[in-house]
Amino acid sequence: MTVESAFSFFIAVLIFGITPGPGVFAIMARALMHGATSCLPMALGMIVSDILYLIAACLGLATIATHWSELFTVIRIIGAAYLLYLGYKMWTAPVSSDEFNASKSQKGSVAANFLQGFLISASNPKVILFYIAFLPTFMDLSVLSSGDIALASVLTLVGLLIGLMAIAVFADKARGFFRSPRAMKGLNRSAGSIMAGAGAYLALRH
């Protein structure tokens, strides 16, 4: 991989990472509820899933997608159902100050948040299409070395981490405006709507 193609790929991944979709909406919703730091495991789960798709694309993801389309469909449905469930939980979260502060501390385990991020990315058709359709425009897959694949994986890790955590920090800053019980109720419902919308997007997208 040339320096020019590596740089172009990094910029493309960065832009891809901040493009509105289920992953971005989930990060926003979590940051609004629990702060930017809590989004790191979820972001890493998404990134690991993306890197696996990247490696699969280098090894022939189009063929895999053709023969395992049913598996992708099952993963997508599971991911969508989980997001809808989380949206419901956020929508019905407590709104009094004491209960709200308690709910902020109940962020879930790191493993659960990582798995949530992994499922969101693994079940998102946009991720699959990106690596099938756009990866060959940045590199010749027929002559890729293991070093090229490793470099592309590192660039994906850095680019997506910057993009996703930037969104988390932005959403976290917005959290400071939600102090009154009425505002906190609006925050809960906004975050829940965002998360449920991400689930509906996955459920309806093919």
TrEMBL record:
UniProt membrane topology term: Multi-pass membrane protein
Cross-referenced InterPro entries: LeuE-type (IPR001123)
TM region(s), chain numbering: 6-28, 40-65, 71-88, 109-134, 149-171
Key words of the record: Cell membrane, Membrane, Transmembrane, Transmembrane helix
An example Gene Ontology molecular-function term: amino acid transmembrane transporter activity
GO CC entries: plasma membrane
Classification via Pfam families: LysE
Principal place of residence: membrane
Membrane keyword on record: yes
Subcellular locations according to the entry: Cell membrane
Descriptive protein name: Threonine/homoserine/homoserine lactone efflux protein
Organism the protein comes from: Marinobacterium stanieri
